[in-house]
Design a protein that fits this description.
homotetramer, alpha+beta, D-amino Acid Aminotransferase, Chain A, domain 1, D-amino Acid Aminotransferase, Chain A, domain 2, 5-stranded mixed beta sheet, 6 helices, 15 strands, globular, BCAT-like_C (chains A, B, C, D), pyridoxal phosphate (chains A, B, C, D), transferase (chains A, B, C, D), transaminase activity (chains A, B, C, D), Aminotransferase class IV (chains A, B, C, D)
Chain lengths: 249, 249, 249, 249
């Protein structure tokens, strides 16, 4: 389902010769979630590209005129800025059993592509997705081998009740759900460590969970062919987080 | 000028959700140049993406049906492969005086994006172009600071009649003009060194030239605010290369 | 136990102002093992430092005049080359249960220090050793996070009867025992893969073993706090390798 | 000229099996300069190695008992800490014309060796010195190609009256003279930028100078085979800094 005020031929030229950035929003009970945060992140993406952003009003209108389970808003630019909106259903990724793995495709270095430039057609992320196989998501490492993030999710580990996640300096996208999850955990009294995380720490810990817009907190059951030790706390946190988010709306 | 056998709405979805690769060909005297080499490189790009390539016949037809000074062929993929062709004029970049500079945007690491995956909307290259200012092109370094290439050109330096250019292992695109230039230089009896090149070598050498599809060999007069020592040999080679290419057709 | 033809004050100046390289040899039944290979590697170390090596005869004499379970030969240089020999006992590292872990100290990059320059007082290796705790050895990663080697051992993994070990290009020392083990395994009909190894592969494989001069093949029972799946094949290979080495003498 | 309270054989074992750190101090008019700063840096070096430092009193005594133009204090450790002092003359490096160049040997990465661990026999620095030829010093780059420092000096550039020098985050030693020079320049009203510096900036600037303990500020006349545009301001600053330092004693 497409909607645009612009000529399609125009968009084709723009997408082929220029560059596109995007944001994907969730709605809960027909209310869009974190519109302002998504707008701010879009502005950040556009600022790297030296493109003047739309006004917040304009962005908000696009969201409300296209309410759906997931709303994907694309801005493409080549001399002029054009917008496109995709109304999407929130695919049910509710696989009971979550298996992830590492991918050999590395996330592009921040010196090459700022981690919070959310642009269309990023080849590193596309190539990583091709290696997914039957995994829910695959974890990308950074240029020094540090854990970065999944192709659409952020990673957390639980180690002796401390909760550890790659810092922004690791070269990751400043995930909006990641931030809400960290606020939620802090309110619950957990200690959060944002720092460089080594891949082997995912094996040498108690639990692993992912976070992403569509599903909040996702407990991980298996990494490669190794089962995680537990996922009980992650499961409990996942349920509590659902309630927490709904209260915020 | 667009031409496509496909629905435009289709292409929009494809470009927004999928990925696009492309090749740009030159014609000389209405004959397209190096069609087979461009086809092979396109196949290489698609193979990284695990997409079946079109047949050579199909590619060749697209070229011949769209003859123009420059022909830009785009293949976009998201579940299906669609093609798009742009007929372009060869902009006259015949600036008498060529100034280049280094950019602080680094080329994405080969572990992240294969250097010979020629995809649309690569943010590193887009960001580098934004720093061009009044330069003809800017030189991107790799993740170790080695010289890679310009945003649309390859770099060569002349040092005591030896001709030196970054090796493919430096993380550069396997430029088709680069290859023709190297063959030409070898035939002329020059010694070519393909190796890691440090940025300061561009200052500590005799001459610097760029190569790219549209203009062949381009002598460089200035790097940053430093004039090159000479450009006489580059200028001579540039003229001889024009003749060399025309003989190949 | 020290032995030297040189003044000690001289050596102090040399070690303080210059640089030292070394080799450590084993004897089996009073016969020194792989003298020529150790000599060649010493010459390689010295060649990086642009120091003329001693003759093979001289090196061999030092070995035979100092026969002991382990012979450590140091060459130090600052204007002149002086040698020093330590006669050592082969410490019994025959811990029944072998636990290893990863260290956060990275091995110096080959662009900084050639991996086969075996010099005294390398701070990266010294710092890694400080993190050993109760581990038999700790595994150092390279500058991209790839598995390199232990502080005194090389690493191998067994995955579906294929035997995999970091390639020299990973930035490792060309271990003499590593080479003998690979020859031995090839003779036994195993497939050996020398390539970049990711840290998580040590968890997602069947067995892990180390190799080093003093003990040959050492099966690993535990990595961090995770037990390896098996160590049966490694144990069998370890015993067979003992016999193989003795036959070579 | 050596002086030690310890057995020489002991030190030989220590230097061969352990690790050594050092500091080199200058005296002006028979007064040692920056003793406390050197002591603090020594403590930093030892703390990386988990070695308890000597007391400040003990360090100070070593300095005063060995007063000379340059005092080199070595602490070596292998089970026990032993000290050694070399009394040196300040070699006259007053070459009228200062030529420097870049070296292809990269400084070890901070993930491998902390930049402020000042240890004996660092192979990267030793190898870099081997490439010096007739240069006063050679500039080492870091693992991303950023400018770090010389093998015994720090680098500054002057660009439109702003003074720029690699930040500590570039992976450099926290030079004591570097710090005094920056304080001096700030007091004189100059703007100092500490940041990542690219090698080509040494060519695209007005002046370049080095700083090191023995000579303070050293104006650079030539980089590789390119003369610097000017060295007038550096020369003036060099003279003023001499006076500034003497006032501090």
């Amino acid at each position: 389902m497409l909607k645009s005020k612009f000529q399609t031929t125009e968009l084709i030229e723009v997408l082929t010769k220029g560059i596109g950035v995007y944001e994907t929003l969730r709605t809960y009970n027909d209310k869009p979630f974190a519109v302002k945060e998504h707008y701010n992140r879009l502005c950040k993406s556009l600022s790297y590209l030296k493109i003047d952003p739309p006004s917040f009003k304009e962005f908000e209108n696009l969201v409300y005129e296209n309410l759906s389970e997931r709303i994907r808003i694309v801005y493409a630019y080549s001399n002029k800025l054009v917008s496109y909106v995709f109304r999407e259903t929130a695919e049910d990724m509710n696989a009971g059993y979550i298996k992830i793995d590492f991918t050999n495709v590395r996330r592009a270095d921040p010196w090459s592509i700022p981690p919070d430039l959310k642009s269309l057609g990023r080849p590193d992320i596309y190539l990583a997705r091709l290696t997914k196989g039957d995994n829910y998501d695959v974890i990308m490492l950074g240029n020094k081998g540090q854990v970065c993030e999944g192709t659409f999710s952020n990673v957390f580990i639980i180690k002796q009740r401390k909760i550890i996640t790659p810092s922004l300096e690791s070269g990751i996208l400043d995930g909006i759900t990641r931030m809400y999850v960290m606020n939620f955990l802090k309110e619950k009294g957990y200690t959060i460590e944002e720092r460089f995380v080594e891949p082997y720490e995912l094996f040498e810990c108690d639990e692993v969970f992912l976070t992403h817009t569509s599903r909040g907190i996702v407990p991980v059951n298996q990494i490669g062919d190794i089962q995680t030790r537990s996922y009980e706390l992650s499961k409990k946190l996942s349920e509590e987080f659902e309630g927490y988010i709904k209260c915020l709306l």
